[in-house]
Prior knowledge:
The chain is 63% helix and 0% strand. The chain is an all-alpha fold and 139 residues long. It has a single domain (18-138), classed as N-(1-d-carboxylethyl)-l-norvaline Dehydrogenase, domain 2, CATH 1.10.1040. Helix 5 runs antiparallel to helix 6. The longest helix has 29 residues, at 17-45. It is globular and about 50 Å long. It starts with a helix and ends with a helix.
Amino acid sequence: xxxxxxxxxVYQGSAGNGQHTKMVNQIAVAGTMLGVVEAIxxxxxxxxxxxxxxxxxxxxxxxxxxxxNLAPRIVAGDFEPGFFIKHFIKDMKIALDEAEKCHFELPxxxxxxxxxxxxxxxxxxxxxTQALYHYYFAN
Length: 139
């Protein structure tokens, strides 16, 4: 059954571990998205050819699915969702709550969650996670 809905199937152990694994993914995505968006904003502010910059860095150490797939959409002005901001905020809050229960901090995730909350307040909760780009021009 799982093979019908996904290509990578990895058993994570006892009940609840799958949810925690999803949170690991969302934490990594939040940090990656923040870095990719700030890199694009920096390139724009330095008046670089952003598409050319992406070609140069996407295959190196900065390369990621986000850099290869969502960065070009940001440059093209495409902020339609693959994953909605409102759902991402929910997931980030779950991860932050779990970390708090276990008495540790995730300051990078807390920063990302705060920025996405601001986007939601500004009416962008139905946009894709790459709409984080708008934060840098709304403030």
